[in-house]
Amino acid sequence: MSTLFQPTALVGAIALAMGFSTSVFAAESQDQRVVNAALDTLVVTASRSEQNIKDVPARINVIGTDQIEQSPIASFPQLMMTDASINMVQSGGYGQIASLFMRGTESDHTLVLRDGVRLNNDASGLASNSFIDTTEIKQIEILKGPASVLYGTNAIGGVVQMITKTPSKNSAFISAEVGENSTYKTILGLDAVENGFYAQLRGQRLETDGTNIFDYEGAEPSSYDQKGFSGKFGYASDALDISLEHSENEGRSQYENYSWTTYAYSPRAHDFLNQVTTLSTRYQASQNTELKARVSHFKDVLTQLNVAEETTFVSDEYDLSVRQNLTAHQNLTFGVNYKALDTETHKPSDSFQEQLDSTGYYAQHQLQTDKLKTQIGVRIEDHEKYGSHTVGQAAARYFFKPHISIYSNIGSAFKAPTMNDLYYGNYANPELKPEESVSYEVGADWQMSSAWRSGLSVYRTEIDNLIDSDPANGWKFANIDETTIDGTEVYLHFNRDQWFAKTSYSYSKATNDASGEDLSRRPRQKIALSLGLAEEVYGLSATLTANSRSDSSAYDEDSIPGHMQIDLHGYYNANPYTKLFFNIQNAGDVNYKMASAGNSDGQYYLSGGRVASAGVTFRY
Question: TonB-dependent receptor-like beta-barrel domain: which residues (predicted)?
Fold first, then answer.
């Protein structure tokens, strides 16, 4: 593997940076006091338009810039692990398959977006979570609960949306981080702003020797490398916003495969490529009328080496919406979304290709007063293969006092079968029907003082025709009559001066009503805790996440033991232009079990283990 940024160079850069005088500078500090999802945080995922997070009649969490920029080498799955409602199952370390289970739903029941563009492909139904780069991401919004009214298929469990940065001033930076297992990442960035016009360029490269996926004698580490770039160009004013954005990431991930012929492991690898191109505009036609339009192209390619297999997914999407203010406190949004989906898998045998079109028509009404916030919507999805589906949602939040509110919502959602469910391998079933769900939720939020706030949510999700393996029919995929998920979430946040603490707890019971058994890979309990201090010049923090045990899969009786992970982070702003930082992922270096490999030798996929790293960022 190449050495893009040598450790000796990093040490030299740190030594040079320490020679600068220390100064206090509020404007340039990237690690302002860490208040995740603060009361003045603006989010867009819940309603497709900006709104204050405290007004959203649903549970939503925000991973902010401060947390994303703690560690350039931290992957998207690692960031997702810090949310108590998400069980992130990764089959090894960097670049290995990563599945996201939100609130007990399936891994393809969470829709992943980038500025409104869906990253879930139609082959597996999943986003390529392990290959997503977060270099230019401003914040990640995690909307919990059904969202098919606004976003269509896949949004049964919720939506994870990455919001990209838009330049606000002329600047340039270079950031580099070096860690254990020969892990390196370098990022270059350039921003330019002039009279409303802006340009943003980013380039990044990550390489790592990786860690062992299994713990059998003679196991070899599985390496990973990626490189990518992005550009964003646009114009912004009160009346008109227009932007053109392109992002591209490619690389190679090595892994190990078990052969049922030789009863041994052999090294494998796959190459990946994902591209997103988006042209979007917002036009304020009048004081009461706003129009938004988006055209996007998404391409996701996975090439399995050694076995001559390649899957290509292409999605072209067109979205047009109009938001009309009816009164000072009411608005109506209506729109249409068209998707042209093309999935093609080439294999030595049983290749398949399918092109599908889907058109969604949606409308949403909002009432926004000081005490009452409501959101009611309906969507009709016209799917080329499965016909029309109608979903709806109604939600409300009521403020007894400015610092105490309750909310409730009910919503339906759906998900069409994936191409792999229908056609891939011996377990496919071309007769599968779409999954449908209804969810109910109530919750409360309380700002107890200027420093303390807390909240509670209780929810139930009922899923009909859940697609799962059927042991009575040779483990082929089948539609399960009904699945019920009951759960609750509690959070408590503290922030005073430079000190902060955040803790959240999630309980979720996902049950196959036909068999009475828990669904696989759903730990019933998870807790996430972060605490530390964040000064303008320096900061220290620690994050703990812990899961209870869970079943491994429907194919075996293996279970995944409960596990705990502690991450550490620190930074030092040497001057307005130089920031030094360190990270320790999995400080205990615990190779805990993530999932059963399903082989006869009893092996489990292991977590990536500890990665201690240090880095420097220069800004101009």
Answer: 215-586
- What are the helix (H) ranges across 477-537? none
Q: Name the H helices within 289-329.
A: none
Model confidence at 12, in pLDDT bands (50, 70, 90)?
A: very low
Tokens of 27: 């404007």
Nearest alpha-carbon partner for 435 in 475, 395, 485, 474:
485
472 phi and psi angles, rounded to 5 deg: -80, -10
| 8 A C-beta contact, residue 544 and residue 526 | no
- For residues 109 and 153, give the distance between their C-alpha atoms in angstroms, rounded to a whole number: 8
Contact assessment for residue 588 and residue 545, using Cβ atoms and an 8 Å cutoff: no
Token pair listed for 98: 């990563």
User: pLDDT-based confidence at 18, cuts 50/70/90?
Assistant: very low
- Classify burial at 161, counting beta carbons within 10 Å of its beta carbon; exposed 0-12, middle 13-18, buried 19 or more: buried
Q: With bands split at pLDDT 50, 70 and 90, how would you rate the model's confidence at 499?
A: very high
Contact 188, 148 (CB under 8 A): no
Return all residues near 461 (Cβ < 8 A) that are at least 6 apart: 103, 104, 105, 146, 156, 157, 437, 438, 439, 440, 484, 485
pTM of the entire predicted model: 0.92
Distance CA 176, CA 4 (A): 10
Which homologous superfamily does the CATH classification assign to the domain defined by 7-619? Answer: TonB-dependent receptor, beta-barrel domain (2.40.170.20)
Q: Which CA distances in Å does 328 have to 163, 401, 460, 528?
A: 28, 21, 34, 40
pLDDT single digits (tens) 400-415: 999 999 999 999 999 9
At 452, the amino acid letter reads: W
From CA 221, how far away is CA 91, in angstroms rounded?
Answer: 13
Q: How far is CA 505 from CA 81, 85, 190, 529, 587, in A?
A: 13, 8, 40, 9, 22
Task: Summarize pLDDT for 453-467 with one digit per residue, the tens.
Answer: 999 999 999 999 999
- Top-confidence residue, 598 or 511: 511
Q: For the purposes of burial, counting CB atoms within 10 Å of the CB of 24, is it exposed (0-12), middle (13-18) or buried (19 or more)?
A: exposed
Q: Where are the domains of the chain?
A: 7-619
Cα 104 to Cα 109: distance, rounded to the nearest angstrom: 10
260 burial via Cβ count (<10 Å: 0-12, 13-18, 19+): exposed
pLDDT category of residue 266 using cuts at 50, 70 and 90: confident
User: Computed over its alpha carbons, how large is the radius of gyration of the chain?
Assistant: 24
CA-based nearest residue to 168, from 136, 199, 204, 202? 199
> pLDDT tens-digit profile of 44-54?
999 999 999 99
